[in-house]
Amino acid sequence: MYEQFRARAETVGAEVHRFKTRDEALDFVLLFIRNEGIQDAPQSCAVWADGPFLNGIDREQLRGKLPGLRFDVSRETAADARIGISEAGFAVTDTGSLVSDQTDVSQRLVSTLPAIHIALIGTDRILPDKAALFTRINPATSRYIAFITGPSRTADIERVLTIGVHGPKRLVIVFVDGMGGVNI
């Protein structure tokens, strides 16, 4: 299902990568944000929302290696960030969409305000379609479910397409084999 998801997601403008281990995925993310010129300056930082991926990782050591990498998510830090990093709950193959429980406002902020959104997800969280997804979502515990399909895009009445007006200009999806994920 990964290849089908990847094809659909890339069709709508997402960038999709896959890694065997969390360490490989972390190395990719750190290199990516370094190559994007992240620094401790307005509109140049990266903000990373808390999640299971970060468990056991020394965040202070990462901040020391990459000035401009922040873990304190607020409306101000997310609005000031160039890159936002979060975790997704599921990937839906038939639409190439990510699905996240964004009840925690920090997840919403890092996935919508920065120009680039990096979404981390376990490869085992890929589902074939929305019907399979709806058997996994628990409305009693999930108050804010977000479907993310490619970078933000809109078109005016003359059909002039604009990317990134209402959200990120780039969506980078990072799959990790065996990572698992959070239940939504």
Shape: globular
Briefly note the structural class of the backbone. alpha/beta
Distance between the termini: 20 Å
Total beta strand runs: 12
Please give the order of strands in the largest beta sheet: 1-12-7-4-2-3
Kindly provide the name of the CATH class.
Alpha Beta
Number of domains: 1
Would you tell me the overall average pLDDT?
88
The radius of gyration computed from the alpha-carbon positions, rounded to a whole number of angstroms, is: 16 Å
Largest sheet: 6 strands, parallel
CATH topology: Rossmann fold
Order of helices and strands: HEHEHEHEEEHEEHEEEE
InterPro entries: FTHF_cligase-like_sf, LUD_dom, NagB/RpiA_transferase-like
Protein name: L-lactate dehydrogenase complex protein LldG
Pfam family, one: LUD_dom
Organism: Geobacter argillaceus
